[in-house]
Amino acid sequence: MELNLTFTENRAIKILILPIGDISPEKYKEYSNLIKTINFIELSSITRNPNETSPLEKISWIDGNMLLNFVDSINHSRSEFEEFQVYKKVFGVIGVVDCKKSKDLLETKRLFEEAVSLYPSAVSTLCCAFDPMDDQPDLDLGANLIMIPNNSDRKHLIFYLTTLLIDFSHMIFKYFEKMVGESESNTPLISTPLESKGWDEFGKAKKRKLGRFYKCKGDYCLLAGSPLDAFKYYDQSIELTRSNNDWEWLAGSQEGYISAILLKRNQDFNSQNHSNSLSPNTNNYLTDTQINTDDQLIKEMANESIANYNKRKTVQFEIDISLKFANYHISMDRKIEASDLLTNTYDIAFDLNLDDKIMVSCSIALLYYSMNFKRKFAFYLREAAFLNHRKLNYDRINNLLIIASKYYQLEDLYAKSPAIFLDQATNKTVSFTLNQMKRSNSKSSKQQQVQQPTKANNRFNSRMPQLSSKKEKYGWSVIQRCLILNLITVSVGMLDSLSICKYIIYLLRTQYKQLAQQKQIEFQSDLLHHSKTLPLNINTNVQMNSLGLPFIGKVVPLSLPNHLVPNEIKSANSSTTKDKFFIYSPYEKDNLSNKKQKIVWTCDEECNVLVTLSNPFSFDIFIQSLTLSTAGVPFESYPLSFKILSFTDSMDIIISGRALKPGPLIIKGVFVRSYNLISEYPINQQGASINLNEYYSLVKKDAYKVESWEVPIVSEQDDSIINKIKVIPKLPMLNVVTPTVGGNILNLFAGEYYTFNMEFENIGTLDIDSIQITLDEFDKNLRKSIQSNKSNQSYIDYDDDEMISFSWDQSLINSHLPLLPGSSFSLPIIVFSKPFLIGNQFIIKYQSGLNQNQNQINNNTMTTTTLNTNTNQTLIEEQQPQYERKILIPIQLNVIHGPQIINFDILYASSKTLQSLGPYIIEKQQKTSGNPLGNSTMSLSCSSAIEANSLNNEMITSNSIHNDYCLLVFDIMNCTSTHTFTIASNLNFDQVSFEKILTDSKFMLSPNSTISIIVPMKRESFPDVLPPLRQPKGQYIKPKKKPTEHEEYLNRLVQYYKDLLIKNIELNWLSSDNTKGIILLNNIILTSKLVYKLNNDSILLEFRDNILSKEVPVGEFHNIDVCVTNVTNQLISGLVLHIQPILDKQISNKIDLSQKFGYVGSFTVPITELAANSTFNHTLPVVFFEKDSFRFIISCELFKTKHVIPSPHSLHIKVV
Amino acid sequence: MSNYTFLIIGKNDNPLYEKENAYVNQYIVHSSLDIVEEHVWKSNNMYLKVIDKHNKFNISSYVTASHIKFMLLHEKKDEDAIRNFFVEVHDLYLKILLNPFYAYNSPITSTAFDNKVKKLGTKYFN
Known about the structure:
The structure holds two protein chains of two kinds. Chain A is an alpha+beta fold. Among the domains of chain A are: about 5-180, Rossmann fold; about 550-560 and about 595-730, Immunoglobulin-like; about 735-875, Sandwich (Immunoglobulin-like), CATH 2.60.40; about 895-1095, no CATH class; about 1100-1215, Immunoglobulins (Immunoglobulin-like, Sandwich), CATH 2.60.40. In chain A, the strands form eight sheets. In chain A, strands 18, 20, 22, 23, 28, 29, 31 and 32 form an eight-stranded antiparallel β-sheet that branches. In chain A, a hairpin with a 2-residue loop joins strand 15 (about 665-675) and strand 16. In chain A, helix 4 runs antiparallel to helix 5, helix 5 (about 225-245) runs antiparallel to helix 6 (about 245-280) and helix 12 packs antiparallel against helix 16. Chain B is α+β, with helices and mostly antiparallel strands. Chain B has one domain: Beta-Lactamase, CATH 3.30.450.70. In chain B, helix 2 runs antiparallel to helix 3. The interface of A and B includes residues 343 and 380 of A.
């Protein structure tokens, strides 16, 4: 029984190829394959005597051909039905000799002859000695031993061999002619083992002899390549055998007849092609009707033949012809018929012996494969595997199951295609029919459909669809599970622990949901047992084409902790700023916000990766080691060993390692060793676990190439790549602590001065050569939340940067640089708290020396060699981004009010008033009597002190009652309920003439109480030049109404005085906690009205002689004398003097004053001009009609500015 | 005919529903899919009758308009019963399809469907 039977077999001449002498299997294969290429002998190539007559009357010498069926001696077994099936006879023997090994050619010849003698049916022999050496002359050893000349050119060699084979086949042909020409009487009776040994056997045989004889003749004609002669003999044979009920011979004749039809068709087709090429217009012989009639005939013959075999219960022959017929169906594209036939064939084969059954099963499988029925193919392969099971041929079962498994959607079980042997077309029939195909195909592809049955073989190469490994896995879990269990069983039989482990892992990984818990545990113990016998270096990816247990979900590299994240130093001359035409672009901002910060690791520092594992199985998995798999710079991964409990959905593990060199680093995945097996779990660029196929496709895309810093773009969502990491050279490590600030929050009173220490310690291994401290604002959200609690806008001082609250001495830092490893220093930080401050973030950037030098060099080149721009540019290009480290220390200020000004006012005061205040002031005595220089704790300059002193003295002596002073009254409240404050004022006499009298006094302010502090200040005229108005920060929209000139002047005045006060008045406090600070004056509200009080009056209004109280009798005229004095050095014009009489005790408004007194002149006196330092005297005569008490108020109005200067005094007249 | 195997195969060669006895039967049904694919294009009917056999088993098939294959492996050839069985299962399948929570070509997990199919099986094949 042979595989892949076709009707072509009936007309192929069996030639045996034998290895002779010492020859290696490779050489033998090479030489025999060379011979096997020449299986088609054209009759036209045989040289004949033209006068010679042949018993083959109708042979076509032009189109006829002989087909050689080369069989390796190993595969050959003698059939007992050689007489019945002539084509099973060996007609020729070809020996293959390797001259290099078999040097003694005589001995070789002897061996060959010995081998040939085993095959008595051989009529033609040939021994080919390949690769003869120079010292092996072509001895005349007889025609049978031919030295094949050395020739590297294969074409030449084949040509030589073809010539040899033509002669060789001629011998066979002659034998066929002889057999056909033989007459009936000379031949013995032909019998087969099927014949029963009955008493009437001889008689029967005699009757049947002729039919059988003709059948044999037909067979020889067929072999010789003459279908027409074959028809003649077969017709006779069919007739005779049918009449004699010689069923198997009848069936045999019919089988031969079919073969002859096909051969004839083939020849016709070839000849037609020949003629077509000469005259293309000739009619097509192979019409559809011709084909159809042929086809009909073949079908009838075949069915009859099967039935005839069936009559004699010759199952073997029945199967043979069924398979041949099925093959024919396939060639005619009748798949369903073929399938039915094959199904029946398999049923018939039920009674055969085991080996034949296996053979049938395999044959059917192959036919299905050629039909592209891959599931049927797999099914019959599996059947074959089961039949083999009885023979315990584990190797074969394993192979068959492996091939079949591919078609049960288990492709990913194997790395290489297991069915690859089919594609190589190594088996016998495929090879010779293929060559035949090539010939006919090269001539025409148009008529392919009606070609030989061999057509089917073409499908082995072309029609089979590609198995898609990308297709998802679909169901069929039951079948797959069975198959894998079978494979496990076979592997156990083969003692192949590796395969057992592989299948168990595969089954567990794919079907854990369908497997019962108990079963899983059993599998695990099997796995445990078998994995122990495996060597330690088994990698499941390579040896099993699968990942191991457990599952990995995600691998995410983590960036270094915040204070260790390397920070790129942006070079000042970076190209990005150059190209920008617009200062602001919305796209840029978008880019910045979207740009995920790429992870940067530093060399030799521990870095972490988060691995998510899951164990859905019903058993615990012990992971012997879990390490990182990386590409790029060398990386040392610290292995981790742990256990994952059963039914764990996800388990996060952090593994760590360190990069040994700076450069690009790609995390490919993780290595997991469990059950003694290492698996490399690959991840994609987003860190999610992927399967092996995806991994290989990534490898093909160069995703793991690390030649440059630029990472190749593989996926569209490139910004989400997380597995590419930059490793930069070592950076120093600095530890900064603020030991006195608990929780990074400072609780301070407004205006408090506070100092705390910041400790710096180098904990790394590198020197720190530069430390830069800058302050930054808090995060926006934090700022908002803090600010929402406070509404202290009035405190904002425009002079300061409103956010800076800390100050320090940079030189102190510099004096400690470079900071050696292990050394430390502390830096005092000074805080001055204001109510609106919320604190700042300290940004401490530090780096080791390299950069600075480089920057310096860079700067130098920039300045000195500006001409040589080329070198400069290269310098910039070469400059790798430099890194530094950054520590963020947020210090939040929690500012509450201690002593706070809640009210502010300005009052007029004369020197006299000030004096009268004296007794209420603590330590006044000491101050007035003593030397102001001696007891001064303030930082007064000498001159100002003297000035103040003199002023003081002058004031006391003059004892003036005029309002040449004003009092600044600060109402101060203690907002705390816990602290007591001692307040002292500290005045600056540089710019303002304060009254010295009240300075240097101290006040106690107990909790929740209020005191007023009075600061006397001399009124002086407004300065001529005022600083311009500050624009409020961040306000770009101008007010709609433009202020008038005067309004603006007033605003500037207010601003000037507020600044003046804040600058020069310092109210220091000392709390009961011994903290120091000042009271902030920023929240005082200064209006223009108040400011004018500070102005020294330009005009002095007086009643003559300063007599402020008079007694006047009724009805008598009395003069009221008013002096208006210009105290400035300038002429004042446009003055109006008002005199206002009022009743001292006015009860009602309705009283008409004119009835009470009379006057001469006007209450309103215009004064056109008043020269400097001159006095204008005005006298108003009045007469009183009633006894009463009157009061006269005088005021002067500057006409231009409408500014009214009141007199500090009034005249009181009592009418008696 | 109590011994029968019924499978519904989806468009991508994936079983949607299995009512099986022995795993061998699944192998047979799986291999018959090739034949079904051949038959589908040669007939206008959904019911393809007996399309394949293996030893004593016959395989009947019914292919819906959306190329969902109903495969029945049985011993006796009772065409009417099989046809009715298929038609009624098709009805049930359509009802499953109408369920908005059922995605086309995904495994059928409905126990109601399972019970009804089993009932139909006993009705026609016992």
